[in-house]
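Title: Request for sanity check on Tol-Pal system protein TolR prediction

Description:
We are preparing a figure and want to confirm that the structure record we downloaded matches what your pipeline produces today. Could someone re-run it with the sequence below and paste the raw structure tokens into this thread? We only need the token string, no images.
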Amino acid sequence: MRNAARHKRLKLKSEINVVPYIDVMLVLLIIFMVTAPMMNANVDVNLPQAQAKALKDQKNPVIVSVAADGSLGLTVDGGRKETVDIDTLKAKVGAFVKANPEVNVLVAGDRDVKYDGVYRVLAELQQAGVAKVGLMSQPQGTSPDHVSRK
């Protein structure tokens, strides 16, 4: 009798223990849930690269200038640049984009302006309904008064 009880205790189980697999899957799920929101950017901006080429269709873009001191300028339809505050900028550009959704909106930031100033303008333009914003740059080897759109 002892032999039969002992044989019953030592019998191998042919079941798979799935608890470790469930633990691993839950950890992976948490990792993907945490990292997925970090993959999306709130402001879509195509930054110019060193060898970028000029945009082709440049019919009277709206140009928002951010000076080194943080002051804003607005040039519409190739006219003269006017100094504006952030609320006026948002209202004027928003109205202009609603009238013509295909218009190019470009931001020209001074080399010495803080990143916060340009970022604030980009966020305000997004709230004004501008879907795409381009950043202006100056090609290497040109004078500061000759600005090209990239």
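Thanks, this matches our download. Residues 41-49, 144-150 have pLDDT under 50 and may be disordered.
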